[in-house]
Amino acid sequence: MTDTVRQFTVAPDDDGIRLDRWFKRHLPEANFTTVAKWARTGQLRVDGARATPGDRVTVGQQLRVPPPEPVHVDTKPERVRTPLTPDQIAFAQEMVIHRDAQALVLNKPPGLATQGGTKTTEHVDGLLDAFTDGESRPKLVHRLDKDTSGALLIARTNRAAAFFAKTFSGRTAKKVYWALVVDVPSIDDGTVDLPLAKQPGTGGEKMHVDEENGAPARTRYRIIERAGNRTAWVELQPFTGRTHQLRAHMAAIGHPIVGDGKYGGQAAFLTGGISRKMHLHARRIRVDHPDGGQIDVQAELPTHFAESLASLGFEQMLGDQLPLDEHQPPTRADKKVAAKAHAKTIRKARKGERRDRGGGRGSDDRGTGGRKR
């Protein structure tokens, strides 16, 4: 690359064209912004006079053009993945609970992040090289919070990743979570329909209910078993996929998940030997498969959750006896539409009754009038 001023002579074929058009023909690497800057700073000249991009040139004129703009090369070194150790590969393989040509399902342990971030070097995404087999690298399809355990779907091909992304965005994937919550909800089978937004002042690390600006969020819960009024074992089905949705919703109705200090504070920790770890587990995932059929997988509980159930006298087999909910309950918007439609029907019926009553009186009056003498 030269750093000297360049000189050009306008050829007959360029007679009468605009200067910016000349650059497009002969020096396309100099974009309009660059040419405008050269003109503004007086570096671009025609026959010694300052020129603008809109000026027209004539055959034989001499163009003075500055040296090419330096190309800024990103000197940031390309990120090179550190090869996994044999122990990391073994750990990753041990998490697998389903494997086929298009997908993996892992049983993620609590305490392992799904993706990396500030000060987070150990995560599922960093372990996916264990499943490459010399082909394309597997891709995350959805996420679980660091302290949430359970079924995590991984796409093994680009085609599967696109298919699963569409499935999740279309809300056809079914996910079932188990949780222990503080106290016992008064309704055995309920739906939490509360919009969620990032809570100001938390750097986006915490969600809260925001009726005005929050994104729609709905969760169904069903009580599986209860231990007096102390705690309940519940099944949770998210019908939307908001950040921390299950945790924020259960805390919002006064029943934070056991061990979830972020949303439940000190009240989220039970005494009596119950682990202080969070008791939220992605028990089951059912999703359509790119090649047809379905993936339907259950993930075994982590040790601390299983021990808590046993300590409370809960029978783990009872948790899988509830049928998977195939139909989403109506949203608040659906209920408003239905209520308006119902009110409209009632108004029409009443209006019809008034017409009938009015029409009856008119007929009687006319009949009476006809009989008057």
List descriptors.
373 residues, alpha+beta, ten-stranded mixed sheet, four-stranded antiparallel sheet, 16 strands
Architecture overview:
The chain contains eight helices and 16 strands. The chain is 27% helix and 22% strand. It is α+β, with helices and mostly antiparallel strands and 373 residues long.
Protein topology:
Elements: E1 6-9, H1 19-26, H2 32-40, E2 45-46, E3 49-50, E4 62-65, H3 86-94, E5 96-99, E6 103-108, E7 139-140, E8 149-155, H4 158-169, E9 174-182, E10 189-193, E11 196-198, E12 207-209, E13 218-227, E14 231-238, H5 245-252, H6 261-264, E15 280-288, E16 294-298, H7 303-311, H8 332-371
Parallel strand pairs: 8-15
Antiparallel strand pairs: 1-4, 2-3, 2-4, 5-6, 6-8, 7-8, 9-14, 9-15, 10-13, 11-12, 13-14, 15-16
